[in-house]
Automatic annotation (TrEMBL):
<dbReference type="InterPro" id="IPR000182">
    <property type="entry name" value="GNAT_dom"/>
</dbReference>
<feature type="domain" description="N-acetyltransferase">
    <location>
        <begin position="6"/>
        <end position="152"/>
    </location>
</feature>
<dbReference type="Pfam" id="PF00583">
    <property type="entry name" value="Acetyltransf_1"/>
</dbReference>
<dbReference type="GO" id="GO:0016747">
    <property type="term" value="F:acyltransferase activity, transferring groups other than amino-acyl groups"/>
</dbReference>
<dbReference type="InterPro" id="IPR016181">
    <property type="entry name" value="Acyl_CoA_acyltransferase"/>
</dbReference>
<protein>
    <recommendedName>
        <fullName>N-acetyltransferase domain-containing protein</fullName>
    </recommendedName>
</protein>
Amino acid sequence: MTKPVFTVERFQDVYDELLPLLHQHYDEISLHKLQGYDLKPNVALYRAMQDMDQLMMMIGRLDGQIVAYFVAFVRPSIHYTDCMEAAGDIFYCSPDRRGAMIGLQLFEAAEQELKRRGVKCFMAGEKLAYPAGALFERRGFEPIERKFCKWL
């Protein structure tokens, strides 16, 4: 089986191609959808973050088609200004590629890029209804926090 190729791509260059996958991702796992919120990415903010070099988009392609992505915000810590942090925004692997180690490959590629950017603290999360703990643990992540949400 052919392996995907992972590269960093700019938001402005990949967004139109990525949008259908974002909708698939939304349909699959969004909690906001259950509250009646449509997917409406803040394109201007993502572009601004990209322009400030604070956005990292790792894209996995197979035969030229996007099959996985990981998006993170990269910046000095608000609490520890000498510590560069990456906060995972979203990650997704095409359902037909799951179970083929694509998640591990995606995170490995993302980690290499984040190290290149000087990141020391890499944070990412999972939705409890769609656990990805095994992926995180295989990549050496440790659970440190659990987030809660109450809809008002």
